[in-house]
């Protein structure tokens, strides 16, 4: 009798464990505690959305990997930047498409961290000579992120750019910079209102 009771208790415990978390059929939540979020907030929306929750968990993993590589960063900027990013993400409540805003913010930030801290493979650096002036060069490294990214350097400036939809070629857009590769050449703008430069890959 005791043996059967023990078996029944073991089966009951296994069933309880199977219905907890994944086994319950409910999608796993984000990396933060959903019991502590404010109703109607962006965090509450993330908690209720399987795709956004998955993006948040991915962000948490990528941030942790970036933090390991940023230990010798001077000045230490990663943590402050991440706090600023979270604030910006939460400002998506102002958007007409709140969910799309949050999703795109996650994707861009994950891609940025993966590229900046070399968490994914990169291609390059590729050196471009612009306007036939060897001194006028742009150095670009391309990363297989989602969306694809490029980190471009010109002089003391650095720009993170993201792949945009384009009828032809590969067009990357940064804050005030663009790089459009097309038919073996690259058209690059660097800085707000700056003229477009015609660039070619250096041998």
Characterization of this structure:
The protein is of the alpha+beta class and 203 residues long. The chain has 2 domains: 27-116, no CATH class; 122-201, Lipocalin (Beta Barrel), CATH 2.40.128. The chain is 37% helix and 27% strand. It has helices at residues 2-18, 42-47, 50-69, 78-90, 98-116; strands at 122-130, 133-143, 149-154, 157-164, 170-173, 177-182, 185-190, 197-201. A hairpin with a 2-residue loop joins β6 and β7 (185-190). α3 (50-69) runs parallel beside α5 (98-116) and α4 (78-90) runs antiparallel to α5. The chain is elongated and about 60 Å long.
Radius of gyration: 23 Å
Number of helical segments with 4 or more residues: 5
Strand content: 25-35%
Tally of domains: 2
Spans where pLDDT lies below 50 across 5 or more residues: 1-24
Order of helices and strands: HHHHHEEEEEEEE
Helix content: 25-40%
Cα distance spanning the termini: 83 Å
Q: Label the overall shape.
A: elongated
Q: What can be said about this structure in brief?
A:
With about 200 residues, the chain is α+β, with helices and mostly antiparallel strands.
């Amino acid at each position: 009798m005791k043996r059967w009771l023990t078996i029944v208790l073991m089966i009951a415990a296994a069933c309880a464990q199977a219905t907890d978390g994944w086994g319950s059929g409910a999608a796993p939540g984000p990396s933060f505690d959903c019991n502590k979020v404010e109703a109607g907030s962006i965090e509450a929306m993330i908690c209720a959305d399987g795709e956004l929750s998955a993006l948040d968990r991915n962000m948490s993993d990528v941030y942790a990997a970036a933090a390991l590589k940023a230990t010798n960063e001077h000045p230490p900027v990663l943590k402050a930047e991440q706090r600023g990013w979270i604030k910006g993400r939460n400002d998506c409540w102002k958007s007409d498409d709140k969910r799309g805003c949050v999703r795109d913010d996650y994707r861009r930030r994950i891609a940025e961290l993966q590229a900046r801290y070399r968490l994914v493979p990169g291609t390059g650096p590729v050196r471009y000579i612009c306007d036939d002036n060897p001194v006028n060069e742009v150095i670009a490294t391309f990363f297989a992120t989602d969306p694809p990214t490029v980190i471009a350097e010109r002089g003391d400036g650095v720009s993170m750019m993201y792949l945009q939809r384009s009828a032809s070629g590969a067009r990357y857009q940064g804050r005030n910079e663009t790089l459009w590769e097309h038919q073996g050449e690259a058209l690059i703008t660097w800085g707000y209102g700056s003229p477009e430069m015609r660039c070619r890959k250096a041998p």
